[in-house]
Amino acid sequence: MSGHPTPRVELYPDRITYNALSVVELAHDHGATVAGVAKVTCAHPAVVDAMVAGGVDLIADSRIDNLRQTRERGIELPLMLLRISERSRAAEIVEFADISLNSSLQTMDVLSQAAVAAGKRHQVILMVDVGDLREGVWPDRAVDVAFGAAQLPGIEVVGLGCNLACFGGVVPSEENMSLLVDVREACRAATGLELPMLSGGNSASLPFLASGHMPAEIDNFRMGESIVLGRNVFDRSPWPGTRQDTVRLVVEVVELERKPSVPIGKRGQNAFGEEPAFEDRGTRLRAIVNLGRQDVVIDGLDPLDPNISILGASSDHMILDVEDAADAGSLRVGDEIAFYPDYAALLALSTSPYVDKVVIGGPRAYPSAWRVG
Fold it and tell me: Which residue in the list 39, 120, 259, 266 is annotated as catalytic?
């Protein structure tokens, strides 16, 4: 027993810093800046500080509340709002985000009014959809939108950006990156603006960047998963030069019983409207742990002991087959079992108020639980 409550997420900031150094070096060698994205941990201060220590040039997040808390903690790097700006929160965006990503001229007009009222000049990146079909104006509309934004007082259009591999799964390529470069040239000609920043996507850009084929004009990347988890987002394989033991989930055994591997009796749907199938493996040692679907994406958990299998979960309990676990003979109620979470699982764990967050090591002490809001 560690003395910390369960369930808990253990964060290892020194390892995250190690990953940041590796990713930032690759981008800087290309002449590009890196916006460190800690949103998967709800901008936990230890993760943000680890990214800063690793040399990121900006901090980016999709929630203005996270940027507010980051700024109030004294982080002096420029802050970027990732999610398309909301008109209803324009005053907060102007106050706490130095740069925001936008695709709506109407929203940028509201940001303009908020910036003028606050006596500020707010920087915006115009997002262009180069094929993934998430946010961004279609390329043939970019010039008109950029021209309109350039006329707004209190607004500085500092560049263009795109997003890939989040919705449609489209990967960065010479074609779509060159399209972004070409659209910028057309916008430059129409507006007379320099538009110095071309933000070429997220961690999905790493393989293309490492290949040496990324256009030199692409000079900013928004990196999250590659830094926090050390993963290649295309297949979740380890990214070279990074660690994958940066975050652990630890749960507690609350029941340990030998039971049949197939339910007994007439079956219908489970609590989630599913009709699960079961393999008859005879009587097995099964552990129930104190975590469920309300807290995590079960399929995104990888037990540290590869001999443990996840059988399923309800809202509040996860059921494990521990018959072949390395310590099956000594396992007891109250013992802890650890997992590595993937991005989706970590996102849910970080958001759940029922999962404690504990920082292991690192140069600073943080509260054992970091709550957003």
Answer: 39
CA distance linking residue 121 with residue 89, whole number of Å: 16
Residues 84, 49 contacting (CB under 8 angstroms):
no
The partner residues of 312 in beta bridges, in order of sequence, read 319
Q: Are the C-beta atoms of 318 and 291 separated by less than 8 Å?
A: yes
User: Could you write out the three-class secondary structure of 260-319?
Assistant: ECCCCCCCCCCCCCCCCCCCCCCEEEEEEECCCCCCCCHHHEEECCCCCEEEEECCCCEE
Catalytic residue at 120? no
Q: From the CB of residue 152, how many other CB atoms can be counted at a distance below 10 Å? A: 20
**In the chain, which residues have pLDDT < 50?**
369-373
ω into residue 353 within 30 of 0, thus cis?
no
DSSP assigned state of 143: H
State which amino acid sits at residue 293.
R
pLDDT tens digits, one per residue of 172-207: 999 999 999 999 999 999 999 999 999 998 999 999
In this predicted structure, what is the pLDDT of residue 362? Answer: 66
Give pLDDT tens digits for 242-290: 999 999 999 999 999 999 988 887 877 777 777 778 888 899 999 999 9
Measured CA to CA, the distance from residue 324 to residue 43 in angstroms comes to 37
Q: Using alpha carbons, select from 142, 137, 135, 97 the residue that is nearest to residue 115.
A: 97
Query: What is the distance, to the nearest Å, from the Cα of residue 277 to the centroid of all Cα atoms in its chain?
Result: 32
Burial label for 321, CB within 10 Å (0-12, 13-18, 19+), is: middle
| Cβ atoms 138, 190 nearer than 8 A | no
The C-alpha atoms of residue 279 and residue 287 are separated, in whole angstroms, by: 17
State the pLDDT at residue 373: 29
Q: For residues 281 and 309, is the Cβ–Cβ distance under 8 A?
A: no
